[in-house]
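Note to self: the last two entries modelled the partners one at a time, which told us nothing about the interface. This time every component goes in together.
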Amino acid sequence: SPYQNEEKRNLSLGGHVGFDSLPDQLVSKSVTQGFSFNILCVGETGIGKSTLMNTLFNTTFETEEASHYESAVRLRPRTYDLQESNVHLKLTIVDAVGFGDQINKDERQVSPIVEYIDTQFENYLQEELKIRRSLFNYHDTRIHVCLYFITPTGHSLKSLDLVTMKKLDSKVNIIPIIAKADTISKSELHKFKIKIMSELVSNGVQIYQFPTDDEAVAEINSVMNAHLPFAVVGSTEEVKVGNKLVRARQYPWGVVQVENESHCDFVKLREMLIRVNMEDLREQTHTRHYELYRRCKLEEMGFKDTDPDSQPFSLQETYETKRKEFLGELQRKEEEMRQMFVNKVKETEAELKEKERELHEKFEHLKRIHQEEKRKVEEKRRELEEEMNAFNRRKVAVETLQSQSLQATSQQPLKKDKDKKNRSVVTQSQPGACLSSSKVMITKTSVEPLNCTSWWEAIQCCSCLVKSATWREGFL
Amino acid sequence: AGPVESKKEAAMSELVPEPRQKPVVPMKPMGINASLLGYIGIDTIIEQMRKKTMKTGFDFNIMVVGQSGLGKSTLVNTLFKSQVSRKSSGWNREEKIPKTVEIKAIGHVIEEGGVKMKLTVIDTPGFGDQINNENCWEPIEKYINEQYEKFLKEEVNIARKKRIPDTRVHCCLYFISPTGHSLRPLDLEFMKHLSKVVNIIPVIAKADTMTLEEKTEFKQRVRKELEVNGIEFYPQKEFDEDLEDKTENDKIRQESMPFAVVGSDKEYQVNGKRVLGRKTPWGIIEVENLSHCEFALLRDFVIRTHLQDLKEVTHNIHYETYRAKRLNDNGGLPPMTVETEENHESNL
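The predicted structure of the combined assembly is written out below.
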């Protein structure tokens, strides 16, 4: 290094500086941000996973029982916010639903679990690789511990157990536990535990070891390591024992107390999992399991730590070539899409043109029909007009004839005078009536008697109305 | 020199408080409440975390910048109550003032209350001492960026170290000469450039040359000038996390900073107590007396309350900015981030 650097030497302080508050400063920041802890529970349906979680965290997370008829194994994560004094914990419990239920217990039992764990690592890795990233407030979903529930047969591990644990041991911290431990007697349990541990060892399964490098916890942890796998009993029901209410399972022959260390290892599990090693589990997940995943993934993607001097560059180069490739691919696909779009547009355009043409034709057709009709109507009107004119001419002719004939027969003056009088009365009383000298035929129906009692009288009376029904329009 | 020092050490020990008790991991719940089933033990994670961090220890890198003779080394020694920095007066007087700005990083391991700290003091002799001081901040900026680069290199390794050694500069104390007038162009230029890459804490050096009124006025003027020039010193307004932070930091930014300090590593007897101070014909200036100077404020601020925050701002903000820029620039391709790629993937 070009800079003058002295070897680090130990210095003694001449007074109280105050940086011993540093752990407090660090912890208080973490407290403000909150912690995440993610537990994966793997075990057959009905083995007591949910009950154990409820007992461990002293709440009721799960209310329904899981079905035994799942078609495949699926992972079901549920997140809860817990708080104790000023500590906020985001607890995620992931259940492997349907595990061990299928008739054919092939690798499809385990692969969904492995996939889930890998996906959480992948998500973290993606965040870490981003150019603009925010790791410090990233919600960590990586599985910190896997509780593997062993069926209390009392004999040995099932082959599914071995296969599953072997697949998971390089990806997650495994703590094996014997479930429903109250179904095994003490002596059987002891033999069972030994058998399990030896089978795990002979199959090379790496379970989580409680850390023994810190003096404060080394002793308790090494004692606990010897008690694995923990034989647990879970219960959220309370039974009165002596004068206290304890969590227990009541049988006709006695009461199995959950928190009694001579009855089961629940207390040990709680101590180890939560009160002593929670932080170590988180740390191991990050520094060991995640780093392994990351390394494998990056190597798989083609990155290598070849030249120590040019690391960012080789990462960058590989990254760039991949980026170019990808961009090229992207462009090609874009082109394809654009082409498709253009074609579609052309098609639609053609369709629309066709429709337009059709519409136009229809319109023209209708127009022609309309014009035809109009013409016809026009013709009819002309005909009608002609008729009317013809009629008028005839009428005029008839009238002139009548008036001639009237003059010729002037010997009947009374009748004629009457007629004349009637006519003129009638014509005068008719508002707007044309004062013509031609005779008008009055029928009985055209007179409306108001004051007069007979038709004759009405005709002569001025105040009676005469309906115009028999009058032709031409005379008004 | 011998007997004085041993006397000093003996006296110093009186100032050391009781060593903190090693925290015990609770095995049974403390303060059981009436309901037997109440306590789970989640809050023990604090203790677990604290123990882990104490085991791994902490790194802290502090840089001091200012013209020679402003008391930088003395101040750092006073801050950490030990000879972490070699004073120029202790050096061979025939050593010339360096022609360019040099960067000298000296590391020490100090322990207090079970907490181990690897402290590195980065000195910058030659800054502002030339006739022509143009761009004298460049070597400093270069050094800071090189530390970011070193860290980045480690971070992008395939096989990474369990704990990446942190040499990044967490805090830069910039020493302002107590002229009583205003900031100098060099001060402004330096702080303008560097406040974007590192946490700068401006301090007024040798504050015992100013009276109280002069001090207050000078501080106000300096604050004004910094504001006018858009210089964001630590704690930066934009990184206040919540209202509580903001009110606390506002008070510091608008009233206390820049801290007017006096440094000393000599002790004197005052009122029956041994205190760090400077003896003058007109009296003894007590370094840790708040009515004399603001050293105690600076010490509490940097070490006792904001040390972790200084590191976090450096890591989460300055380093991330450097990293983002570095990953973007390299290759000269249009800045398309990895996330955009992912978005494209999902769209296709």
